[in-house]
Amino acid sequence: xxxxxxxxxxxxxxxxxxxxxxxxxxxxxxxxxxxxxxxxxxxxxxxxxxxxxxxxxxxxxxxxxxxxxxxxxxxxxxxxxxxxxxxxxxxxxxxxxxxxxxxxxxxxxxxxxxxxxxxxxxxxxxxxxxxxxxxxxxxxxxxxxxxxxxxxxxxxxxxxxxxxxxxxxxxxxxxxxxxxxxxxxxxxxxxxxxxxxxxxxxxxxxxxxxxxxxxxxxxxxxxxxxxxxxxxxxxxxxxxxxxxxxxxxxxxxxxxxxxxxxxxxxxxxxxxxxxxxxxxxxxxxxxxxxxxxxxxxxxxxxxxxxxxxxxxxxxxxxxxxxxxxxxxxxxxxxxxxxxxxxxxxxxxxxxxxxxxxxxxxxxxxxxxxxxxxxxxxxxxxxxxxxxxxxxxxxxxxxxxxxxxxxxx
Length: 408
Description:
Elements: E1 4-6, E2 12-17, E3 24-33, E4 40-47, H1 50-72, H2 78-90, H3 98-113, H4 116-119, H5 127-139, H6 144-163, H7 176-193, H8 202-215, H9 223-238, H10 242-247, E5 253-256, E6 259-264, E7 266-273, E8 276-283, E9 290-293, H11 296-307, H12 329-342, H13 352-364, H14 369-376, H15 380-387, E10 391-395, E11 401-405
Antiparallel strand pairs: 1-2, 2-3, 3-4, 5-6, 6-9, 7-8, 10-11
């Protein structure tokens, strides 16, 4: 009787034994969907060992997918190619992690599809056009990390097309060394001038807090902008991850022995699944709820947030947009850019910098690394290595950038 080994729907091995000769072979089969036509077909491969059977399956699968690609390659655009390659990767046994798929999907949508290179035909694209696109994104201020991801997506997609026999060469090869050298220079520059915290100065941080509270009293500032400013301050006061803050509801705030305690129990984030944005709520990163005491400024933030609403219910989210919908980690991070601009904090972005600022200021105030780690829900090793900024960035008269460690 054939023996089958099925693992999480990732295909099926069948052992085949010839009754007359006793010869054993293995057959690997799996349903494969062609992303171009929507056609689903069971593809198989048979040989004397499991690895050889799988290799035959791969060849048959590539033929099934390649037949359709071959018909469309003459009109295929670079953006279409990248999307087809991403879908191809998703169907492999060593599937992309959801986070990797979402990241590459975002890279294609934001940095390839929305630009002229995305409309270029694959057969006609030149090496110079690829180089110009990377340089253009760099001039727009895209970070080293994002630029490298754009390059990797383009390069990998063209390599795949060559392997499929659909194009004769990879146009990225001719500019590969130039691009890599340019990226290396950008990375080295970022290492010198990256702003990892808002400030290491306790007095300056207090000035920022005072300015936020003053802006929240300014009638010319919209309620939406006030909420973003307050969110920024709340993260500065708690060191929360962006997803943890977006998960918070008013029911997570409680009074205990004349103190205000915050329950950090989950994270609200957005992922992409089947081409759609899905917002879901999950456990905190450590899978362990923590309870933290809030500072007077954090409590003041909550009071102002309540005053910006006509009705407050325990099930209401703490951070909402102008339409009354809760933020997720992605939309909040995007919104914080406006808060930085209102405060004149140019060059800052994201929410993680607020977490690092909290840890750095707490350390400067004499709080132990162990206590900081417990408060923000991380390990002492991570806090010590990544969160505490002990250097100041200085630009000298000649324009040279360097960092120095302050006198302890």
